[in-house]
Every structure is written in structure tokens, then in C-alpha cells.
Amino acid sequence: MRVVTVDENGKELGDVKWVDIPEPDHFASDGFAQIESYVSRLLRSSARYTSLIIATPDQQMAVSLGQRGGIPHFSISVEWRSEPDREKAIRQFFGERKLATYHDYLAGNGGVSDATRCLDYYLPPDVQFITTLAKDVLRQIYQLWAQDALDFSYEEHHDAV
């Protein structure tokens, strides 16, 4: 995967990197039942940065959890032009839980510089809170069911800045 860091205006910062992405753990059913163990693992990690991507097997839906310096966060993106109702639902969902964005920006996708709205939220370091939040996002925002298949990509980055 080609990785580039950008500022809040989408301007590239630093050098482009190519990184290998490990194959995710696949669960053909009962994906929700796996979330808590991955969240626990994320919060227990002593790595400088730890990431968890929860996605549908077709990669049409994905959310990301991370932890840097002991502070967990939730990241979600939406194609704001084609899915304005979903963006509104995401903002309402997190607002109802008194979680404010710490990053809210537009990013490029498919050659369009401002195609994707990216929203990042700090979370309390609480396994049950984060597990429930993740399940509720998957259920309420993406209309997934507890028994649906999910893929989990977990990585610890010990040399991350």
C-alpha cells in the first residue's frame, strides 16, 4: 500500500512510503463476538502505536480503532457527497455520546482531492465502552448484524512516531 502523510489541507508531508499490509483475520460468522478480544488486545498493547481495522470481507465498510501513547481513538470515513445522510448519522451518533472530533478533514480518494470526510474521536480507555461503541456503529451506521462476517487487521507499530 502507498502511504503518504498529509496536513489538514491535504498537502503531502514528507516522503511516500510503501508498506506491506498483513492478511486480516477472517471470521465467516459472528463477527461481533470477536470485537471485545481485539479491543482488549489494543488497549493492553505497549507499542508506540497500535491499530485495528474492522471491515466487511468485501472491504466496502471499515472502521478503525487505534491507540497512541495510551490514548485510544476511533476513526471513520464517509464519501460525503454521495452519502450525506450517513455523515449526518455519524455526527449525530458520536454527538449523542458526548464525543467530539479531534480531527475532521477532507481527504483524497480516486483522484478527487476532497472526496472523503475523515472523522476521528478520542475514546476513554475502557474495553466495554469501546466494544459497545464499535458494535453500535456497525449496527446503527452500517446496518450490520451480530452474526455477519468481519475481518480484523491488528498491528502493533513499535517504531511509530
Summarize, please:
The chain is α+β, with helices and mostly antiparallel strands and 161 residues long.
List keywords for this structure.
161 residues; alpha+beta; seven-stranded antiparallel beta sheet; two-stranded antiparallel ribbon; 3 helices; 25% helix; globular
Report on the structure:
This protein is of the alpha+beta class. Helix content is 25%, strand content 41%. Helix 1 crosses helix 3. 15% of the residues are buried. The model has no long low-confidence stretch (mean pLDDT 92).
List the helices and strands and how they pair.
Elements: E1 2-6, E2 12-18, E3 25-27, H1 32-44, E4 49-55, E5 62-68, E6 71-79, H2 84-96, E7 101-109, E8 112-122, H3 127-141, E9 150-157
Helix pairs in contact: 1-3
The average pLDDT is: 92
The number of helical runs is 3
> What does the largest sheet look like?
7 strands, antiparallel
Residue windows where pLDDT falls under 50 for at least 5 positions = none
Helical residue percent?
25-40%
Radius of gyration: 15 Å
How does the overall form come out from the CA principal axes? globular
Sheet-strand content, in percent, reads 35-45%
Distance between the termini: 19 Å
Q: Total strand count, please?
A: 9
Question: By helix and strand content, what is the structural category?
Answer: alpha+beta
| Pattern of helices and strands | EEEHEEEHEEHE
- Strand order in space, largest sheet: 3-9-4-5-6-8-7
